């Protein structure tokens, strides 16, 4: 049976990008929606991997749109982008806290750029502190569904893949983890995730491990 639970962030504990946030980004960019979102997602991987910072990412988006953003607009886009991804699911936060209180070892794996990662560290430290391992793609240089992202977490946890339960809302990420031998649960809601963790019968971690990174906020 698993010895740890590895959670996805967005679509599981945190909510997906809000429609209001998307509208705000489109308004600031002054770009047609379809063209903006094509460039936004197509150019996102290097940003999520920490290969470029937010300002360079938005300059690349502007170039793909056939325009340019000045520094003020870039700053506004970075702030609006962060805000659009900042909401969390209170039921899932409660589940994380209950699971941690039961002594279960927790880890987090998220495809996330540096500016957004820093925002979560600053504003969501109350529940992030329950994760003994936090693997942000921008800092580990690996992103789901690449095998390296899961294997990096397993190595850092000191566990073989078959000792880890992975929870994610995207089927391609779940299938990639399954191919490596991780136990998996395709997230559909807090109640089902709670049942999956309970059914896994994970042994409490008595090692006294603490979070591996400093939390502010």
From TrEMBL:
Pfam families associated with the record:
Hydrolase
Q: Which InterPro entries match?
A: HAD-like_sf (IPR036412), HAD-SF_hydro_IA (IPR006439), HAD_sf (IPR023214)
Matching entries from CDD domains are given as:
HAD_sEH-N_like (cd02603)
Q: Which domain of life is it from?
A: Bacteria
Name of the protein in question: HAD family phosphatase
């Amino acid at each position: 049976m698993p010895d740890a639970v590895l959670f996805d962030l967005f679509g599981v504990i945190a909510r997906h990008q809000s429609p209001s946030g998307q509208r705000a980004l489109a308004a600031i960019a002054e770009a047609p929606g379809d063209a903006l979102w094509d460039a936004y997602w197509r150019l996102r991987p290097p940003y999520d991997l920490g290969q470029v910072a937010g300002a360079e990412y938005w300059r690349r988006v502007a170039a793909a749109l056939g325009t340019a953003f000045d520094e003020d607009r870039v700053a506004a886009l970075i702030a609006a982008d962060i805000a659009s991804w900042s909401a969390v699911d209170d039921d899932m936060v409660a589940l994380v806290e209950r699971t941690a209180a039961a002594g279960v070892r927790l880890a987090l794996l998220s495809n996330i750029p540096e500016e957004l990662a820093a925002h979560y560290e600053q504003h969501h430290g109350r529940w992030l502190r329950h994760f003994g391992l936090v693997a942000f793609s921008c800092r580990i240089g690996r992103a789901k569904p690449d095998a390296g992202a899961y294997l990096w977490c397993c190595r850092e946890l000191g566990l073989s893949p078959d000792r880890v339960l992975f929870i994610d809302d995207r089927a391609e990420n779940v299938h990639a983890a399954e191919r490596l031998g991780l136990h998996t649960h395709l997230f559909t809601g807090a109640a089902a995730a709670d049942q999956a963790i309970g059914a896994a019968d994970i042994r409490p971690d008595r090692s006294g491990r603490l979070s591996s990174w400093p939390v502010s906020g």
